[in-house]
Known about the structure:
Elements: H1 2-30, E1 32-33, E2 52-57, E3 63-69, E4 77-81, E5 85-86, H2 92-101, E6 105-109, H3 124-143, E7 150-155, H4 157-168, E8 175-179, H5 185-192, H6 201-204, H7 211-214, E9 221-227, H8 236-244, E10 250-255, H9 267-280, H10 289-296, H11 305-319, H12 326-339
Parallel strand pairs: 1-5, 4-6, 4-7, 7-8, 8-9, 9-10
Antiparallel strand pairs: 2-3, 3-6
Amino acid sequence: MNKLVIASLFGVVGYIVLINVLKYIHAVFCYDPQPETKPFRLNPQYFGSSYETIHVKTSDGKQLEGWWIPYTKNEPLMVYCHGNAGNLESRAFKLATINQQLHLNILAFDYRGYGHSENEFPTHDGIRADVNAAVDLAQEFVNQGKASELWIYGHSLGGAIAVDYVRQHPDKATTLILENSPMSLRAMAAIIAPKIIHPAIDYIFDNVWNSRENITHIRTKTVFIRGMCDGLVPSFHSQLLYKLSAAKKKLLISLPRGLHNTDWDEEGKIVVRKIRKWLENEEYEGDSEADEEESSELSCQKTDSKQKVIVTEQIQNIQNIEINEPKQAKMITEESNVAMRRKNGFGI
Length: 348
């Protein structure tokens, strides 16, 4: 009997240890916070946009720091959700460029653990609370007449976070913009996680930030931006999300030489031109066939020939997938993920 009790105790302890190890792997994969104690050296004003520092209080009592970058009260307000690494300082040029060229008011913020926000390691629930608080503040600004309507923009993991928010709050934002955003954490883990944990991916990575599922429930107007030379989130992730999207109006923008972090000094001009055309012309539905063909060919010299063949084949397969064939889409995507595994570490 004593042996049975001891064995049971060891089993319970082992189970608790295993669960915590899996949670740690999950958290480290998802979030790479960069806290900062010194003032940022770069900010939107450095690149020609006026701004002010704002503070956001979350429902669980955490304090976040962000930037309010105004344009005019007659233009939309865009809430910006950044990716899993860095902080606002590394997005200063991008935010200033979007502010000036897309004519948008912007509310950008750092999640908990990032930048000057409260120094606590982020969790899924914590990130959700952060986004809720930031969007609530943005809505207050709209209600006060500081902007005309609310948009949400998410880059990389921030795109998955934005999609999660919009699914839960379908009436908040009028437009959703996703840049190089992954289909799901499981899909990304299959690409960049060490092979040793591949058999446990389904157990380690739960269903949170699952854009492949969430996007099928969202009717909000949506823009998908993909860099065809993205070395981290393969471009077919955006292609598949676009195909599966239930948005009442949607646009896919393919940047032939675009990397994971869009060069807003060059490719950004393409993004601005196409989004403006999309907003002004109800009939405009995206890239022409010629543009799409050029994008699918991946005119990117930094992409090796073997990878180019793999990605091009997967894009061609996905282009034939209809929205009512999610099982086939899932099969092709998962096969692609295996083929496209990276060795360049995390950073979504």
